[in-house]
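Lecture notes, part 5. Sequence design as translation. It can be helpful to think of inverse folding as translation between two languages: the language of shapes and the language of residues. The source text, in structure tokens, appears below.
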């Protein structure tokens, strides 16, 4: 049987050494069928079964012997179940409640007191840059792209944000997926204990700031905000309220950002809040296994004082210990009424003193 030729030999006019081999139609479709039915991802796109080494985790658990302390349960209504609070042996505080508003999923937020309040004028932008470096710089030995694909494959979503006084890491977990809680806790542990912090993430952050600054004249809203900040606030306060300028961002060094971030990710400075539909026993086991070993492989970090300690009256507005303790759990609660004025434009932050001539 004669074979139909799909393509004859082709030679490039620009480079005679580049040529295409002769092949048949049957050979072409055979190769295509194999590629579709038996795809092999390149090494760069290969997805590991797990992002953590179980043997490493087991060794840390054996060393730390994590446990739950100061457990308290509170009834929060006939249909709301109970609010459970406890502290892990390394100082991490946990609060969770079950609800069925969104079946078979739950949300978790890990909050570290710090955020932009830790910045000084010389450290302008370091906290926000740290959040970008943290979430976009990868975790463990895995670049951010691998962690993101792993999370997507297992229906796990995560993000972080840097606020006025807190640095937060958020997780959305779908419990319909097998071992969902185990995978979520392992990703959380990698980001809290072993952030990769690839320098390219900081470079991309600086590029975004540069592009944002270049687009400023095109936005009436942002330009108005800038002019009002200059009009209403003193020069000593403007740097906290205005957008981060590129000439400041481009001078941010990665070691300074890492240092500020590490000061916030201290076990005793972390609080975990969880709400949704989950198995409490499985959740608590995961929290003890992964959050309970934070700091065990870094003695200096485990014993470090929270970054806000001693600065409560300087820049922080939280009243620690004033109505924020439940029994002996020592949970941080923001019981301060934070009043602010929205003057028809988005405020970047909320600190600052008005100039004497301000209306």
């Amino acid at each position: 049987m004669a074979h139909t030729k799909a393509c004859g030999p082709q030679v490039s006019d620009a480079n005679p050494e580049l040529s295409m081999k002769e092949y048949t139609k049957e050979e072409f479709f055979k190769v295509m069928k194999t590629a579709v039915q038996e795809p092999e991802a390149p090494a760069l796109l290969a997805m590991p079964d797990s992002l953590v080494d179980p043997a490493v985790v087991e060794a840390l658990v054996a060393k730390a012997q994590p446990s739950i302390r100061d457990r308290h349960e509170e009834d929060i209504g006939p249909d709301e179940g109970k609010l459970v609070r406890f502290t892990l042996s390394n100082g991490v505080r946990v609060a969770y409640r079950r609800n069925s508003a969104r079946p078979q999923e739950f949300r978790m937020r890990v909050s570290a007191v710090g955020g932009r309040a830790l910045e000084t004028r010389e450290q302008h932008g370091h906290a926000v840059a740290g959040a970008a470096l943290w979430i976009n710089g990868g975790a463990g030995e895995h670049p951010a792209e691998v962690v993101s694909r792993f999370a997507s494959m297992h229906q796990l979503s995560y993000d972080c944000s840097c606020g006025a006084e807190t640095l937060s890491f958020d997780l959305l977990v779908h419990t319909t997926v097998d071992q969902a809680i185990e995978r979520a806790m392992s990703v959380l542990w990698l980001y809290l204990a072993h952030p990769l912090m690839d320098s390219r993430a900081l470079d991309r952050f600086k590029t975004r700031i540069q592009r944002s600054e270049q687009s400023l004249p095109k936005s009436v809203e942002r330009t108005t905000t800038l002019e009002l900040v200059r009009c209403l606030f003193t020069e000593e306060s403007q740097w906290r309220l205005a957008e981060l300028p590129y000439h400041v961002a481009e001078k941010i060094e990665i070691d300074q950002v890492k240092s500020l971030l590490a000061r916030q990710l201290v076990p005793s400075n972390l609080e975990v809040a969880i709400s949704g539909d989950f198995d409490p026993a499985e959740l608590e086991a995961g929290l003890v296994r992964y959050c309970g070993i934070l700091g065990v492989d870094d003695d200096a970090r485990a014993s470090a004082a929270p970054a806000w300690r001693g600065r409560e009256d300087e820049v922080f507005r939280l009243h620690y210990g004033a109505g924020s303790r439940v029994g002996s759990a020592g949970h941080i609660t923001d019981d301060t009424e934070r009043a602010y004025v929205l003057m028809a434009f988005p405020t970047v932050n909320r600190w600052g003193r008005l100039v004497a001539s301000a209306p």
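The translated text above is only one of many valid answers, since several sequences can fold into similar shapes. The longest strand covers residues 105-113.
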